[in-house]
Each structure stands twice: as C-alpha cells, then as structure tokens.
Specification:
Number of domains: 2
Order of helices and strands: HEHEHEHH
Largest sheet: 3 strands, parallel
CATH architecture of the largest domain: 3-Layer(aba) Sandwich
Number of strands: 3
CATH class of the largest domain: Alpha Beta
Shape: elongated
CATH topology of the largest domain: D-Maltodextrin-Binding Protein, domain 2
Oligomer: single chain
Structural class: alpha/beta
Helix content: 25-40%
C-alpha cells in the first residue's frame, strides 16, 4: 500500500482490518489490483474508494494532497513514468493478504525444448533460484 509521508499508518507496526476500514483508497485501473482489493474488502467489509486512475501524476497528487492510500504493487511505482511516485512510503499488507507468488516451468515431456529455451531456463534458474536445484 502506498501512502503519503505524513500518513499516521506509517507509525504502526502491523496494520489491522480496523486500520484499513477508515482509509480512503485511490486505485489504479488494474485487474490484478482489483482482485486484491476485492479480497481486502472480503476481510474488512466495504472500503471507501475515492478514485480510480490510470495516471501516475494524478495518483501521486491524490495520495499526497488528499492523504489517500493506494493499493498498488511495487512494480507499478518503481516503473512509473512519474518518478516521484516511487519515493512515497510503502506499507506491506502481507499480514492481511497472501502476497506469496510461485514461479516455475511447465513443460510437455512429449515435446522437446529447443537448445535456446533450455539455456534460457537454466540461466534464469541459476540466477534467481540457485538453491532450488
């Protein structure tokens, strides 16, 4: 969750459902975020959404000027065309939302992979998952 530097939630160690019920949410128009938000509402009950946006500058302004919170992914802020968005504080919601992500390879044993594909998979496995072998 992305917040303004003066948001009181930053002082809390772990957020509770009660903390989130009193926030005003600004959401990116993003299917994955919508799914996470629906799950959050399942836990918290109805949450107040003040705006849905596609524009990073507008999201930054909404967070900083209206003290709204943005349910977003780190990827969205760190690769935003409006770089100040990446400078805003983030609060993990891992205690409330399962943010675990699995990555792996599915292959068909009846279809042989090209040498280039095998090389790519080996490179990624060695680089990012060296202990899984």
């Amino acid at each position: 969750m992305i917040v303004s530097p003066d948001n009181p939630l930053l002082e809390k160690g772990t957020l509770t459902v009660h903390d989130l019920r009193h926030q005003r949410f600004a959401l990116f128009n993003d299917v994955a975020n919508e799914q996470i938000f629906r799950h959050l509402q399942f836990l918290c009950g109805p949450l107040k959404v003040i705006i849905n946006l596609d524009n990073a500058w507008s999201m930054y302004a909404t967070i900083t000027k209206l003290n709204a919170v943005c349910l977003g992914r780190t990827f969205q802020t760190h690769h935003s065309p409006y770089s100040p968005l990446a400078d805003l504080p983030e609060i993990e919601l891992g205690d409330l939302i399962d943010s675990h992500f699995e990555f792996g390879w599915l292959t068909n044993p009846n279809d042989e992979l090209s040498a280039t594909t095998v090389e790519l998979i080996d490179h990624i496995n060695d680089r990012y998952y060296p202990l899984s072998r």
